[in-house]
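#struct-help
A.M.: can someone run this one for me? Single chain, 191 residues.
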Amino acid sequence: MLLISHTHEPLEAGLDEAGRGCLAGPVFAAAVILPPSFTSAFLNDSKQMTARRRELVKAEICAGAVAWAVAEASPAEIASINIAQASYLAMHRAVAALPVVPMHLIVDGNRFRAYPEIEHTCFVAGDGRYASIAAAAVLAKTFRDERMRALAAECPEYGWEQNAGYPTKTHRDAIRKHGPTEHHRMGFRLL
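D.P.: on it. Structure tokens below:
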């Protein structure tokens, strides 16, 4: 699939998040500034890619981006401010962590809380249309999956290495049997 740049502006950052619908773990977000010359044969909407393909493309993005950053908001922050606001918080943290300041932000979705002094544009299904948003989606997903595998080693009964904290039957059955952990999102309907 051919993805395009939104503009010819070299300092435009794509933003996306991963883990918004999960029952456990942080929500992750990434900000990626790609050079106009960036190409990848396999970059696509991260949901359309295999885990192995995402890992390969992650390496291409990290090596080829002008700048990239990944950030998160914790389950406690999600419970305190809600998942939408926590997603925006993680995106803001990712933008703040970029080693260069972008001139414009393009965001996957239909809503975003404005970042100070940087204009933004939202695109529904932007991760399937724009390379920098797709790249941000890949980084957010791969870094979050890595975190969930690490948490699975601490709490193996929940199967997070397989379900990444999403509301699968196996995950919900484990919550019924073992109860929630500190990594579960207490404001979510867990059962």
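A.M.: thanks! The first strand starts at residue 12 and ends at 18.
D.P.: also worth noting: Residues 55 and 142 are 7 Å apart (CA to CA).
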